[in-house]
Amino acid sequence: MSSVDKFLKVMREHDTATAALIAWCRRHHPYEAEAIAITLLADETVAADCYDGPLQPRAGETLRRRRVWLHWGDRVLSEAENWYVPERLPPAMRDAIADGVRPYGAVVASLLPQRITTIALPADRAGEDRAQAEAVLAQLARTEGFSPPEAFILHIHAVMMASGIVLADLREHYRRELLR
Question: SS3 for 9?
Fold first, then answer.
């Protein structure tokens, strides 16, 4: 089993990417850090017509896009673009996300979210599904502040749900440093 496949197995065993990353890093990089940290690149309101995913904001709901880098010590693990609707979260969670200190998954963990992966594209297998790979890489190219495609070992698109409500559309790009 490849390192990517082992990491995907850890992802399936956890409700959030944050929890999976913590479990992975505690096992593979235990002396580098105690917790996941983020670099918040942006958290902005976006017009619904600029979005092409499953959230489907209703009248009165705000669509937001949050771009972050997740770190374990000095190691950048992933670069993520999370689309979410703040009104679908309790006010205290909205405030915690807005403060930009904690990963989205850590903030919403008490809701017991269900993570549904729609795309898991290992970089070394991108040639197997060219249309999917081209779509993922085009989306990555449109995201300001992210590394070039060769920096990544794995791309995941997922939907996070809780109590039957879609909370977030997650577009995660895992850096090669995660597996080193």
Answer: helix
DSSP helix/strand/coil, 84: strand
Q: What is the pLDDT of residue 126?
A: 64
pLDDT at site 95? 95
The rounded distance, in Å, linking the Cα atoms of 70 and 25 is: 12
- Angle at which helices 3-12 and 17-28 cross, to 10°: 130
- Please check whether residue 44 is in contact with residue 78, taking contact to mean a CB–CB distance below 8 angstroms: no
Strand order in the sheet with 64-72: 36-45, 64-72, 75-84, 165-175, 152-162, 114-122
Q: Which residues of the chain have pLDDT under 70?
A: 126-129, 133
Say if CB 74 and CB 39 are below 8 A apart: no
C-beta contacts of 55-59 below 8 A and 24+ residues apart: 55/83, 55/84, 55/85, 55/166, 55/168, 55/169, 56/166, 57/85
Secondary structure of residue 37 in the 3-state scheme: strand
pTM of the shown model: 0.90
Q: What angle do CA 108, 110, 112 make, to 5 degrees?
A: 90
Which amino acid would we find at residue 7?
F
Q: Is residue 41 within 8 Å of 144, Cβ to Cβ? A: yes
